[in-house]
Every structure is written in C-alpha cells, then in structure tokens.
Design brief:
Structural class: alpha+beta
Distance between the termini: 39 Å
CATH topology of the largest domain: Heat Shock Protein 90
Radius of gyration: 22 Å
Helix content: 25-40%
Largest sheet: 5 strands, mixed
CATH class of the largest domain: Alpha Beta
CATH superfamily of the largest domain: Histidine kinase-like ATPase, C-terminal domain
Strand order of the largest sheet: 2-4-5-7-6
Strand content: 15-25%
Number of helices: 5
Number of strands: 7
Length: 214
C-alpha cells in the first residue's frame, strides 16, 4: 500500500519551496551509520530483504482479489488480450484456442494469475504458448515454454510463498517469490487447480484446470 504523505506540502507552503527546519533537526534527519544503530554492516542487506519480504507478505494477506465479485468473463478474450499485450512489445507469446469461452469468475484476479504465468514463461523460457480448451465441464489452460523444467521433487515447494528455485530469482529478476502462491490461490478460489509438468520436447508446461459448465 502506497501513501502520498511525502508528497503533501504543509498548508500555505507551495510544493518545491524550501522551509528551513529548526536548529538541530538536520542532524536528527541524517542517516544513521550501521554502528550507530547497532547493526553490523554485513547484516544490512539481509535486513532490507526481510523488510521487503514482510511488506510482500502483508500485501499477500490483504489481497483484495479474493473479495472481487464474480461476473461473466470471456476467458478466451482475456487470454488473447494478455498474449497480444506481450506480442505488441516484441515477445514471442502466442494463443491457441477458441475465440470465445464464457466463464463465471473474477476478471481482475484471473488476469493477474494468467499474466503472472505468461511473464514467468517469457522470463525463464524466452517464449509462451497459451492454449485454451474445454471438455466435460472443465476449461484447461496450458502455459508452455522451452526453458528449464522444474524437478518433480520441487514442484509442490515452488508454490510456497518466498520459495526460490534458484538464487537468480531475486528481487531484481524474479520478485520475492509470491507469484505462484498468488496464482494457485486465485485458481483454487475459482474451484480449480494448477499443476507443473514437463513439456514434450523440453521445457515447462503449467496446466490450469477450471470448472466451466456450459
């Protein structure tokens, strides 16, 4: 949650004007050294990371998408829109499937979940093939790439918040590890489930199954 408190100027003072603080305030506002606050320098990055993890946890716990009301959604159009957004910026993202699949769900949450899967496929596999199908009252969405797969022994653990499959998936390259946890929360909130599979020919296939009675 962001606050605009830092952007608010005091009453009667225009933004950008300088207001001199009382004597002694400059020293109080000066950043404290690690020694001054009792933290060894080598612990500062770890404490910064813990703070980021805490903030991410709070955001995850307060996720309003769970409270989003259900409405009639065209699942095919939603997926096509996501794929088009990536293709428009030159990424190799393609959609295969019907032009229209009505679905009763939470559009913002679904867009967030499938958007996360597509972004992961592009980031770690260089491409994303999104395939939608429906059969026997279920919709199946596959998000596939040609990047490294995930060992079967680790496929459940990657859904845990903050779990990192490899050290390169840090704040700069892969967020704080809440992506798949959020995706599964959204999918299961719609009565479905998600599975990680080996893609035929090499790569990773993420399968999302959702109930979509006709």
């Amino acid at each position: 949650m962001h606050s605009d408190a830092w952007n608010r100027a005091p009453s009667g003072v225009s933004r950008g004007s300088h207001v001199a603080p009382p004597s002694g305030v400059y020293s109080a506002l000066a950043p404290a050294s690690p020694a001054a606050i009792g933290r060894p320098p080598h612990l500062i990055p770890r404490m910064d990371e813990m703070q980021s993890m805490l903030e991410s946890t709070l955001a995850f716990a307060r996720d309003e998408s769970v409270q989003e009301p259900r409405s009639r959604v065209d699942l095919a159009a939603l997926l096509q829109s996501l794929c088009s957004d990536h293709a428009d910026v030159g990424q190799n993202v393609k959609y295969q499937g019907p032009d229209r699949v009505p679905f009763d769900g939470r559009p913002v949450a679904l867009r967030r979940a499938f958007g996360n899967l597509i972004e992961n496929a592009v980031r770690y596999g260089g491409e994303a093939l999104v395939t939608l199908g429906s059969k026997d009252g279920n919709c199946t969405v596959l998000v596939e790439d040609r990047g490294p797969s995930i060992p079967s022994s680790m496929r459940e653990r990657v859904f845990a918040p903050f779990f990192r499959l490899e050290s390169s998936r840090n704040r700069e390259t892969g967020g704080m590890g809440l992506g798949l946890a959020v995706v599964r929360s959204v999918v299961r909130g719609h009565g479905g489930d998600i599975a990680l599979l080996d893609r035929e020919g090499g790569g990773l296939s993420v399968r999302v199954t959702l109930p979509c009675p006709s």
